[in-house]
Protein 1
Amino acid sequence: MGIFKKINFGLRKTRKNVSGAIDNVLDSYTSIDQELFDELEEALVMGDVGVTTASEITLRLNDVVRKKGIKNPADVKSEIKEIVAEMLEGGEDMGLITIPSVILVIGVNGVGKTTTIGKLAARYKAEGKSVILAAADTFRAAAIDQLDVWAERAGVDIIKHKEGADPAAVIFDTISAAKARGSEIIICDTAGRLHNKKNLMDELGKIYRVIDRELPYSDREVLLVLDATTGQNAVNQAREFAKIAEITGIILTKLDGTARGGVVLSIKNDLKVPVKFIGVGEGIDDLQPFNPKAFAEGLFDDIPEDYVEDEIDLSKIKEDVEPSAEENEVAEVMNEIFEAISEIHQEEATEEASVVEEAPESEEEVIEDVAEEIPETPEASDEKEEPKKKKGFFGRLFG
């Protein structure tokens, strides 16, 4: 089953809730007036679209109806669909080009975060990419074990430490392994403890600094996993997480099991955060890239049974694929590049340092050096100040 059919099937409960209510409103009118727009707005709000977004949709609809001179209420539904598709467009593509690229997955416990990471790894593996997972949710042994099972199922590598270990240390070791193995995608699991924002913020900040230090030029995505069944509560979760992390995208899970799929519109329009993936089933291939057109179609219309489309085959993800000679050569070249970059950074740090520190004696000290770079306030001096190093993408968030 291709992406359009999967999304359409996954939205069947939401379609019945949203589209059904809109049909009832339109069937009750023989002409278009302000009362019709008011009832359409109410129907959208009841479909978990959100008050602000529902109001914007009806305002746009009013403008379109006036400009096109539409008189028949039956012709309004297609215009609503066009408006919805337009509102959802933008930012849904994953811009991962560098080798390696990093995906940091955050979200509260219970939303399907670990399972989503496993499905995401399987999808990239099926696309021919080499993937490595970082089990950085070290506060729950169950999370590590669950991710380990998914890594085996998807046929990808995983780096894990024992329960209670430093999450930043797991990320550090995963990045080192990715460089050595030429992995293209690093997917990092993190603890979901929104109830303690200070600890979570400190933990994420430490992880971000490790990534900035070890992979300063890598493409990154910070994806927040939300449970669609919670409706507008999912939007509230996104708002809270946005206060402590710069979210680049949303993964909305359990969309097939709820009539509240209209929350996608509220997330995209109210929070200005794009939806990257949606979960439309429990199967390993049921995590689908978000497609605005397919979602708008699925929200209002059933797809024809004879509809044919291309699809990605995830049935062979367990097979071991030996890298070709060309792939091995590329991996070696990339390793040499990363080693050269690391040497340049070390030389710059040596030139800028006024005092040469002794090398740390243990791996724990290495992690602390990497993760906790606390700038000191320079004292007044007649000597010329050394230029400050420019912070990376994540470093700017918590520097």
Protein 2
Amino acid sequence: MKRQSVIAVVLAMSACLTANAQKYNFVDKTVAVVGNEVVMVSDIENEIKNQLAQGFTSDRNMRCEILESILENKIFLMQARIDSLSVNQDNVESGVAQQSDRVLYMLGGEEQVQAYFGKPLYRMMQEWRTQYEEMSLISQEQGEIINKLPDTTPNEVRAYMDTVDVNSLPIVPVKYQLSQICLYPDREAANLAVREKLLELRERIINGEKFSTLARIYSDDIESARRGGELGMGSKSLYWPSFSDAAMSLRPGVISQIVETPDGFHLIEVIEKKGDKFNARHILIRPKYTEADREKAFKTLDSLRTEILNEAVSFQMAANFYSQDLASRTNGGQMSDPHTGSAYFEIDQLKPQDYRAIRNLKEGEISDPVKSTDNEGRESMEGRYMDGKENYKIIKVDRIIPSHAATFEEDYSLIQDAVTDQKQEKALDEFLQNKVKEVSIIIDPVFGECDFKRALWKEKIRKD
């Protein structure tokens, strides 16, 4: 979701929340007690604002849903304290920093954070720190419960297969095993053209033209270009190291030399720095390749495809010798998911251009040459995936596994995971059910009309 759209949704829903709070006369008071743990109305309201600030919504009554989640967490938290579990403080600080970066970016800065939450950022970070500490204990307690369960056995998986309705079995989507021969265009000439353009732009800025105006005209980062190249205040960890290192070394108002990242080439102007955070403008220009580059690569790939089809050379041998993609070349061209290492791809794991090239092919067939990108891209601050470097390829379909209902023989690990998840959910649910009966719990009558998932909460509502 684009930043502007998220802010519009947040502001609109914030107004709605304020109206609802006034309607029900909510004030900051205790609305539930779970043993020695209390739940304040502000706990609920702050969590609503946190979720909305990150773009989350709910089809149910959000206050009721959040209260139920808090009540469950309080029970796990009580048990964690009884079991003397300790907090991993490094994970807590990392979580707080990431939360701060997200909210700062989505809302636009510290002043906007204070206006939205009604308190300064440092106060919010204190509250988030407490929340992350509690989340750490809750997660550990849940782990303690789950770790007591025995491993899922083949007999349990078989029993599940024998008793479950076949219509409720997991559906395994179609999967592809693929190989590729990949060529890159002439990078040196394209990179030189980009550097010359950025040097020209840098000179124009130094001579008085506005960085923001040139960013709107020339930057290939469309989202930030609309804001004059401005990225918003964020942690240096959000960027490629070469970008953040250059930005952190600049004084506000100084224009950087050309900075290269996997996204392309940048000019950077820092607006503000605070600790390890900064707000900067940038102009991104990616190398542009010509039709001649594409035609040259396509001609080579088409010749290789013909030789492979004529059995003059195997696909694997051609990949080993000609492919310029190092990750797949050493494996005879076989592609693998860079995140999981799996040799099988579901449709939504493939680049759209790659899928279009192979969607009508059968096993053993080879695509025509296609323009694509490599895996050097990353997720931007706006949540968009920025493509990697342009390349050209032919793709061979090694194997197609059709979509099917999971079977014991073909998809054992998938079904084993489903059985394990079911056992874990049942164990956590039984723990909560028993604790809700044992622990002293009082819920304010204002939540009397809530449609809780767990019916026992209704019995805990105070009778006025």
Protein 3
Amino acid sequence: MFEKQICIPSAEEIIAERPVPKELKAIKAERDRLATDVITGKSDKLLVIVGPCSAHEQKPVLDYVARLGKLNEKVKERLVLVPRIYTAKPRTKGVGYKGMFSQPDPEHKEDTLRGIRTIRELLLHSIEQSGLSAADEMLYPENYAYVEDLLTYVAVGARSSENQLHRLVASGVEQPVGFKNPMSGSIPVLMNSIFAAQSPQVFKYHEWQVGTRGNPYAHAVLRGRVDNYGNDIPNYHYETVMQVLESYHNAEGGLSNPAVIIDCNHSNSAKQFKQQIRIAEEVLQNRLYDRDFKQIVKGFMIESFLVEGCQQHDVVYGQSITDPCLGWEDTERLILDIAEKV
């Protein structure tokens, strides 16, 4: 049984309440172009999607993004920085905290309508304060419509990448969409997700039958896999990346814009957050070693916040309440190092 609690206005109504100002639309359009040019190969910069595992409170996220905006001025000739503002990120078992979209105050009960409005304010203020538009995870495909005018990058998680609705909605997104490999690590399943997202589709979305043209910027994200015993198995190494490249080339029907983003955390690091630094360094070395590897690896995902580590409840300002993250000092050093080695 479903108990009706709050009637949620349509995405069009919510966007009309708080539209994107003209000057911010121009900033976002330019950030979209920069990110897309990396995926297509028009630019040889690297894309770095970086920020907290879950954006659970506005003020520390805005503080973090403001620092990232200043850092961007130092690295913008070599990197495209996209702040990770994941607003629907739950804890792994799906019980308790489910992200700002559902729970704008992590210590209080769910309030989805307030959550939606809070997210739009957060994403707008983020662009204002940093000049950078954000990335978010499309955990719940229907929610994407409420923020589609504010995001430069969309991620589809490992537990969602096999889901048909995620694939279909991704086909209508105009910005890059990164599909993480499924938890099993299956490369064929990953390529099927990308193929579906790059293809035109017709399906029901909200109260409409909609048609899409396909998203040529859908691409692979390698985040490691989990075996049948719960062990984390990394897949950022040279061999797996080259297997993905071969799968792109051999895809029946063809795929556009071969691209891989390396997720430096999750099963690649076994959630040992400090390992993200070493993983990024190894990938950078492999880009020097092999031209094909360099061409397909387009960037990194890095989990990072103001204070390193994580906490169960929101006590320490700027520390994750989900997965552990790098602290700001390590993040700044890592981003400067990546920029130097591109």
